Automatic annotation (TrEMBL):
Family according to the record: Belongs to the TDD superfamily. DTWD2 family.
Residue stretches making up the DTW domain: 50-287
Molecular function terms, GO-annotated: tRNA-uridine aminocarboxypropyltransferase activity
Keywords from the UniProt entry: S-adenosyl-L-methionine, Transferase, tRNA processing
EC number(s) reported in the record: 2.5.1.25
Domain of life from the UniProt record: Eukaryota
GO biological process: tRNA processing
Species name: Cryptosporidium andersoni
Entry annotated with the keyword Transmembrane: no
Name of the protein this chain belongs to: tRNA-uridine aminocarboxypropyltransferase
Reaction equation(s) it catalyzes: a uridine in tRNA + S-adenosyl-L-methionine = a 3-[(3S)-3-amino-3-carboxypropyl]uridine in tRNA + S-methyl-5'-thioadenosine + H(+)
């Protein structure tokens, strides 16, 4: 979960960078902006504002919070075991955290094996790089750069080179891999931000970690919420869903009949269901905020109650 302000009475001091080393400035700016945004959210909460946001899903708590629906999905996911075990490391740009339309927070709220790190926060980055160092041989980064590989290509290399499996007519030997996949663990780093933000974060992730691209060419359903700056861009939650589809394709090579593939498929579909929930509520919330602002600016407060009741 995300860090919280210690008290509603806490104040955000004016940031001074005059005596700060250049390499430390970005971290301080991120920390300052994070605390400032959290302070604004908690101020609305203690003022009992109609527009106070939920501190988990960051939608307006009074009418559009989706946490109860997400809790139901999380409960269903707790009963679904898949292998190899997937650990998600969500590296999130600080400008994305408080956006209602951000989908990375959905993954953080429903996937049990998910940890979130705010890019630039010193403590978070130290914790992230510690996990990377301890598990560097089991680490993948989802990012479609020029030399990136598909999940299938990377997994073949892992099992050929590191686990010393034998080839059989150009394929991995089924009996060997099926028995050991259950004990495998893969850490997936996901960069949550705009395309330019993700490119910047990618530069600071160790280069020895394989970059993996999604093979699907599906068009994003995220259009109603965000204007994409690059053709083919998809939301973070869609990325995870499609990654699971690629993982399923890898397992189909071995004719897995244990129910594992069905579980992976179910998780992928539940993620897209959560995206639909988010889109529906964000669009409703934006409509309410826009109309309310227009009416307030026109001094037509007497109509506000009626409009709110019809949205």
């Amino acid at each position: 979960m995300f860090p919280k302000c210690r008290s509603n009475k806490s104040t955000v001091e004016i940031l001074s960078l005059s005596n700060v080393r250049p390499q430390d400035r970005y971290s301080l700016v991120v920390e300052y902006k994070f605390k400032k945004s959290m302070k604004e959210i908690q101020t609305k909460k203690y003022e009992k504002s109609d527009f106070a946001k939920c501190e988990k899903c960051f939608l307006i708590k009074k009418s559009y919070c989706i946490c109860s629906e997400l809790d139901c999905v999380r409960y269903n996911l707790l009963n679904l075991e898949i292998y190899p075990i997937i650990e998600i490391l969500m590296v999130m740009d600080h400008r994305e955290i408080f956006k209602s339309s951000n989908t990375g927070k959905i993954i953080n709220l429903i996937i049990p094996n998910c940890q979130t790190f705010i890019y630039g926060l010193k403590e978070d980055m130290l914790r992230l790089f510690d996990i990377i160092e301890k598990n560097k041989n089991d680490m993948l980064l989802l990012f479609p750069e020029r030399n990136s590989k598909t999940f299938l290509e990377v997994m073949d290399e892992i099992f050929y080179n590191r686990m010393n499996f034998n080839k059989f007519e150009g394929e991995l030997e089924y009996k060997s891999i099926s028995s050991l996949l259950k004990y495998s663990r893969i850490f997936i780093i996901i960069l949550d931000g705009t395309w330019s933000q993700a490119k910047n974060m990618n530069k600071n992730i160790p280069r020895y970690i394989p970059r993996v691209r999604i093979t699907s060419k599906d068009i994003s359903d995220f259009g109603p919420l965000r204007k994409q700056t690059k053709i083919g861009n998809i939301s973070t939650i869609e990325t995870v869903s499609l990654f699971l589809n690629d993982m399923k394709s890898f397992l189909l090579k071995f004719e897995d009949k244990s129910g594992n593939i069905e579980n992976i498929d179910t998780i992928s579909k539940l993620l897209l269901k959560c995206l639909d929930i988010l889109i529906r509520n964000v669009l409703s919330q934006c409509k309410r905020e826009y109309l309310s602002e227009v009416l307030m600016n026109r001094n037509e407060r007497k109509f506000l109650k009626n409009i709110d009741g019809n949205i």
